[in-house]
Amino acid sequence: MRKEHFPDAARRSQRLRAVTVRGKIESEVIMRFSSLLIPVVLLTLTPAPAQAQAPKKLLAVGMSSGFQHDSVSDALSTLYQLGKETRLWDTWIRTDVELITKKDLKNNAKNLKFFDAVFFMTTGELPLDESQKADLMSYIKEDGKGFLGAHNATDTFYKWADFGEMIGGYFDGHPWNQFLATIAVTDRSTPITAHFPASFQVTDEIYQIRDFPKDKVRLLMTLDMSKVDRNAKGVKHDAVPITWTKEYGKGRVFYCGLGHRTEVWERKDVRLMWVEAVKWAMGAR
User: Fold this and answer.
1) Using the 8-state DSSP alphabet, how is residue 155 labeled?
2) Burial of 184 (0-12, 13-18, 19+ CB in 10 A)
């Protein structure tokens, strides 16, 4: 049989091929456009990362008007280093009390209103006038700022009763001098002490504390009295608190009696304790 030619069918076939080619081109264009569009859409839908919070500010005072502790420099440098390492706070180190005031100061000096917390490793009757004393107390009690004390901070301001009430008591002798002490961690439910075991040992000078308001503080560590000579000369108390926190008006107070020896400030567990203590004093929950 002779084969017939159908022009209309050929034209339809050509148009179909053209449509197919055009469709492939359009699909490729759409896919390429989509590959550019999707990242743009995702970028617009993705929330911008939160800006890093500015470091808080700590005033660290290491002035002594009595016994000169070698470890003051270690304490001050430790707090400076920890603030830099964690990027949580910047530290202003002073060996005087000029900045403990709410009055405006000259020559770029900061006053209490600039800081979020104050740290003391101090001794004796520091030269604060009555105005400065009132400013420090209101800074903590009314402004809701933080106060932190280490070791000999309780050996400070015996003639200023408000200070003793605020910090939680006064030094009352160290009958065992420097020895390998067993410390009982009585409260590990706070980040300040959560990393410690139930008890640990440290070679240090342990202070007895008088006028300790045990019903007004949260006791975190105490000396294990079963491991010491309770008949040693100068022993005055059945319990020796080491570390505590307390509320003082709207403010927060932390104290740790460790730190007489320089190497105590090198311990990882003690350094972590201070990181968490500073965070807490500055308002962390």
Assistant:
1) G
2) middle
Distance CA 265, CA 75 (A): 6
**What class is the 56-281 domain?**
alpha beta
Helices marked H in 3-69: 7-45
Q: Contact at 8 Å (CB) between 127 and 65?
A: yes
Percent of the chain with pLDDT over 70: 82
For the stretch 111-131, pLDDT in tens is 999 999 999 999 999 999 999
Helices and strands per DSSP (H, E), number in the chain? 5, 11
The C-alpha atoms of residue 45 and residue 172 are separated, in whole angstroms, by 63
User: What is the reported pLDDT for 53?
Assistant: 85
pLDDT at 33 over 80: no
pLDDT at 209 exceeding the cut of 90:
yes
For residue 246, the one-letter residue type is: K
pLDDT at 229 over 90: yes
Q: Supply the pLDDT for residue 25.
A: 43
Q: Residue 171 CB: number of other CB atoms within 10 A? A: 18
Q: At what angle do helices 268-281 and 72-86 cross, to 10 degrees?
A: 70
Give the pLDDT of residue 104: 96
Give domain limits for the chain. Answer: 56-281
- Strands 241-248 and 218-223, bridge-based pairing: antiparallel
For residue 117, which amino acid is it?
Answer: A
DSSP lists the bridge partners of residue 101 as: none
Torsion of CA 99, 100, 102, 104, to 10 degrees: -20
Please answer whether residues 123 and 229 qualify as being in contact, where contact means their C-beta atoms are separated by less than 8 angstroms.
no
- Give the CA distances from residue 32 to residues 18, 195, 271, in Å, rounded to whole numbers and listed in that order: 21, 54, 56
Q: Report angle CA 11, 15, 17 to the nearest 5 degrees.
A: 115
